[in-house]
UniProtKB/TrEMBL annotation:
Homodimer or homotetramer. Pfam families: Spermine_synth. This is Polyamine aminopropyltransferase. HAMAP family: Spermidine_synth. It comes from the Bacteria. Residues 247-485 form the PABS domain. It is a multi-pass membrane protein. InterPro entries: MFS_trans_sf (IPR036259), PABS (IPR030374), PABS_CS (IPR030373), SAM-dependent_MTases_sf (IPR029063), Spermi_synthase (IPR001045). One of its GO terms (cellular component) is plasma membrane.
Length: 530
């Protein structure tokens, strides 16, 4: 029988080396190692979630980005575990180095990705270059380092007190998974709301460096040479210094990055519960721009083109009761209120922060004609899909879906057959629904016709058309196909830019690119990818 406390035999595998010379008892030592596993696992999961959140935020496609980041990380973790086999003879020093590098790479990853996005704006580019490549590189690097942790920790915990491999693995993975739970909950509920992505990642990097360095130097320091201890201490202090310097400069960095994305005329920048909202211009003769999650949604230079094309054809008929889904900027409501026959307007917008800004910011409220001050307007801060499920039946003559577009995976449910079925139920007899279908130029034409097919699958007759900027729009109604035209008669406003000729041209241009027989998009099978 082999004595686990006997000196190592020459040439013996690392697992049979003598016990570690600990400053504490074996029980306390095992507890400290498992506590280190817990902290490092929490930090590792936060790094993963940071990459997923930032990449999804700037691309608007959380499904793809989550799949890419997690699959690449899991693959890299397997490779890291294999690589770590070569480090088991120097498990303590190897683990300390890995944690220092992981703290630096993971802590700085969010800032690096944000910088590349801000100064290149290339997230929509090919996978072979730009920020997407950097995201994959960070996923690989972080996955390799996380994967190398468990084999080394297994070696360290066995050197404290040998036990059967199954029991040691169970202990390690229990601490690892519980740490992952803590990190997964801390990220959305503590780090993001209290510190934001950049500062939160830097803080987690610092925690990671301290935990890894303290575990090795404090618990296994007697097994290291004096030189090794000094090198590891210097490395960890350097990492902490870099992270601290980045944390001090993070506000200046965010301002510089915001200027790179939006220009020097940023006037308001807030992170709501739903998205980042930025207002540029609107003072000193500079035109107002409204950006949502980095994308221009409203420009005073664009005048009335989009909102007139969206609203006026749908108002060609009974329009006393109007429902606006989305449209938190108030511009669709502004166009609706120009019609004298409107008695009440309900705006349902998921972002309460955007609603407040549209009602209180002087420049934006001027642009929307102070629509939210009109007594006919009622505002509800709610998800449009959820709200429609409880909406009264046949209560609206016009439903205007002024939503961001189906190209962003997060908005796909709002362009599903189920959503349009609920919208149809809210329409009164003879009512009309109009839908913004996103950019509809040649590369994106399939999206417009998928929206059209989905509306028809929900029992609506459709008339697709384009506005002057090639944005796709679909006018729909139950029963007969709705005519595409402008309302006439007393109390009907004259559009600033829209004419019957432009409407006819937009309908003809849309019809010329028709893609027939596309399957509808549903909640279970969204079809707006590509």
């Amino acid at each position: 029988m082999i004595d686990p406390h006997a000196p190592a035999r020459p040439g013996a595998p690392p697992s049979w080396r003598g016990p570690a010379r600990l400053p504490v008892g074996p029980g306390t030592g095992r507890f400290l190692v498992l506590a280190g596993v817990f902290v490092c696992a929490a930090c590792g999961l936060v790094y993963e979630l940071e990459l997923v959140a930032l990449s999804a935020y700037v691309t608007g496609d959380p499904v793809t980005q989550t799949s890419v980041v997690l699959s690449v990380m899991v693959f890299a973790m397997g490779i890291g575990s294999l690589v770590a086999k070569r480090l088991r003879r120097r498990a303590a020093a190897g683990f300390a180095v890995i944690e220092a590098v992981l703290a630096l790479v993971g802590g700085c990853s969010a800032m690096a990705l944000h910088a590349v996005f801000a100064w290149t704006g290339d997230w929509g580019g090919p996978w072979a270059a730009g920020p997407r490549t950097l995201m994959v590189a960070f996923s690989l690097a972080i996955g390799l380092l996380i994967g190398a942790e468990i084999p080394l920790l297994m070696e360290l915990i066995q050197r404290i007190r040998r036990q059967d491999a199954g029991g040691a693995v169970a202990d390690l993975f229990a601490a690892d998974y519980v740490g992952g739970l803590a990190g997964g909950l801390a990220f959305p509920f503590l780090l993001l709301p209290l510190m934001g992505q950049l500062t939160g990642a830097l803080l987690i990097g610092a925690v990671n460096a301290v935990a890894g360095g303290a575990l090795v130097l404090g618990l296994f320091g007697r097994d290291l040479t004096r030189r090794a201890r000094l090198v590891l201490l210097a490395a960890n202090l350097t990492v902490l210094g870099v992270l601290a310097a980045a944390a001090v400069l993070v506000d200046d960095f965010e301002r510089a990055a915001r200027t790179a994305v939006y220009g020097a005329d940023v006037r308001v920048a807030v992170r709501t519960d739903v998205q980042e909202v930025v207002l540029t211009g609107g003072a000193r003769g500079h035109p107002l721009g409204l950006y949502l999650d980095g994308r221009l949604r409203v420009s005073a230079c664009d005048g009335h083109r989009y909102h007139e094309a969206l609203v006026h054809p749908a108002m060609n008929g009974p329009h006393a009761r109007v429902l606006v889904l989305g449209g938190g900027d108030g511009l669709a409501a502004r166009e609706v209120l120009r019609f004298a026959g409107v008695r009440r307007v309900r705006v349902v917008e998921a972002d309460a922060g955007l609603l407040r800004l549209a009602a209180t910011d002087p420049a934006l409220s001027d642009l929307n004609g102070h629509a939210y001050d009109d007594p006919r307007v009622r505002v509800t801060a709610a998800d449009a899909f959820r709200w429609l499920r409880g909406a009264p039946h046949a209560a609206y003559d016009v439903v205007i879906a002024d939503l961001p577009g189906p190209g962003r995976a997060a908005g796909a449910p709002l362009y599903s057959q189920e959503f349009y079925g609920l919208a149809r139920r809210a329409l009164a007899p003879g009512g009309r629904l109009v839908v913004h279908a996103g950019p509809a130029a040649a590369p994106r034409r399939r999206v417009l016709w998928t929206v059209d097919s989905t509306l028809r699958a929900a029992g609506l007759r459709t008339t697709p058309y384009l506005d002057a900027r090639d944005r796709g729009l679909v006018l729909a109604a139950p029963g007969a196909r709705p005519p595409l035209g402008l309302a006439g008669g007393p109390g009907v406003p004259r559009p600033h830019t829209l004419t019957p000729r432009l409407l006819a041209a937009g309908r003809a241009e849309a019809a010329a690119g028709r893609i027939p027989d596309l399957p509808p998009s549903t909640l279970a099978h969204p079809r707006y990818r590509g």
